[in-house]
Amino acid sequence: MHLLRLLAIALLVTMTLAAPSRALTLLRDPDIEYALRKLAEPVLKAAGLSPSGTDILVIDDRNLNAFVVDRNHIFIHSGLLLKMDNPAMLQAVLAHEAAHISNGHLVRRPINLRNARTAAGIGAALAAAAAVAAGSGEAAAGAALGAQTTAQRLFFAHTRAEENAADQSGMRYMANAGIDPQGMVEVMDIFRGQEALSAARQDPYARTHPMSADRFRVVNRLAQAYAEKTRDNQSADYWFARAKGKLSAFQRSPKWTLRRAGETGFRDVRLIREAVAHHRRSNLSRALKSIDAAIASRPKDPFLYELKGQILIESRRFGAAASAYGRATQLAPRNALILGAYGRALLAQGKVGQATKYLEQARARDGRDSRVMRDLAQAYAKQGNRGMASLLTAERYAMQGRMEDAGLHGQRASDLLPRGSTGWRRAQDVLSAAQRAAKQRKRR
């Protein structure tokens, strides 16, 4: 994976919210990410963006927010996803963020960066993001550091002119894709009045996407003008129900989930939600009964086998988990999250060689998963390869913003790995990032 793409994720994993000690965390679930990709596909095509080259990633945060940092990622907070009532609302958010990319709003980020650094000493994290936005620089993986909230707002904030342009472009994308434009109006309605609140009570989306009465009226008029282009889309209804249903099952209480499991009208979504709820209650037999029923209804769905594997591995049924993940891998051999999970189950079984194979495949396809780095480090350590174990540990710490620890393990890897090898060069990247971070701390 190109280091600049990896860096954009590292930035967001380590970026702080209201308190410097609270870091953002990505929620990586192959089923939810696939569902979001299906929902985003028509919008991205209408925006002239590549659906396969634009990832929709979920951040574990109850605030209502969504944003972009480069041309390849759209981030949505779990709180905003759960707040959406229908697929058109979620697609409106995605269309709006896609418009920021297509309209070239990211090119102003280096200017915003300078203002943010002056205001709050933001340092290397946003400097690295500016390199991403500009498409330049030999940035090292994991160079991102935590950022103060004030600086974060300055960096990500859009002007009212950008917001108006993104609204109009987003509405056009939705119309061209046959998506109900009323979804944009409903999203806007959620945030009406937010600007009258104190900054502490505002949702981040309102702070970084300034609202106005005029803006709402323009969107309302556009929705009326585009209404006749709307087409029914049962596929969107299904994938929205699946993404929101599974996410809520993991984030809401099991009691809440079981009361509402069948509200979407899709039987397999109900069974998924029930399986998660029973699993979270440590009722393995009922969880397996539900997920097996879902698999029976969709026997070629890799994500159902992946969920079964998760239930089993978290219940310490490693052999059965590996079997479920193995079937998921057969059905989705290119999905990095599934490959990583299969490697994790094999490692738990003691099948270190096989585990290393699948974990390396996962890392090669998606270098953003710190769990894969952790598992790979363990696998290499078990095989006596201390150099690679140290390298993976260093890269994982860098991704988490723990640059002192990253530098320590990066130096160890550099000393152990053959000079000039690929692993040795990766260690140099981490060491360079750690040195820049150390210089930045001294300036403060």
TrEMBL record:
Keyword Hydrolase assigned: yes
Pfam families documented for this protein: Peptidase_M48, TPR_19
Gene Ontology biological-process annotations: proteolysis involved in protein catabolic process
One Gene Ontology cellular component annotation held by this UniProt entry: membrane
Domain Peptidase M48: 36-220
SUPFAM superfamilies: TPR-like
Keywords, comma-separated and alphabetical: Hydrolase, Metal-binding, Metalloprotease, Protease, Zinc
Cofactor or coenzyme needed: Zn(2+)
InterPro entries listed in its UniProt record: Mito/Outer_Membr_Metalloprot, Peptidase_M48, TPR-like_helical_dom_sf
GO molecular function, one term: metal ion binding
PANTHER family: METALLOENDOPEPTIDASE OMA1 (PTHR22726), METALLOENDOPEPTIDASE OMA1, MITOCHONDRIAL (PTHR22726:SF1)
Protein name: Tetratricopeptide repeat protein
